[in-house]
Amino acid sequence: MTFFMFGKYSGEALEEISAKRTAAARDLVKKMGGSIKGMYALLGQYDLVLIVELPTMTDAMKAAVALGRETGISFCT
Are 46 and 8 in contact (CB under 8 A)? Predict the structure, then answer.
């Protein structure tokens, strides 16, 4: 299943943007049986969107929570 995950940076998360954190996010989604198909910066209510493939809606919810913990970015899926 394909999901759009809209993210909002906290002040701290904005300061910690790095290729290492992006790689960690990709690895986390992969460990959950999915993959990130795209990442895009946004202007407006949300700061970024991830296009993610995961097996189930439950996996998508778990991924949103896990990514929030890992990155400091709050996600709405």
Answer: yes
Query: How high is the mean pLDDT of the chain?
Result: 93
Res. 14: pLDDT tops 80: no
SS3 content of the chain, % helix, strand, coil (to 5): 45, 30, 25
Instruction: Quote the pTM value.
Output: 0.87
Distance CA 51, CA 10 (A): 20
Question: In the chain, which ranges are E strands?
Answer: 2-9, 35-41, 48-53, 73-76
Residues 6+ apart with CB under 8 A from 65: none
Q: Supply 70's token pair.
A: 């890992």
Q: What is the pLDDT of residues 18-46, one digit of tens each?
A: 889 889 999 999 999 999 999 999 999 99
Q: What gap in Å lies between CA 6 and CA 20, rounded to an integer?
A: 20
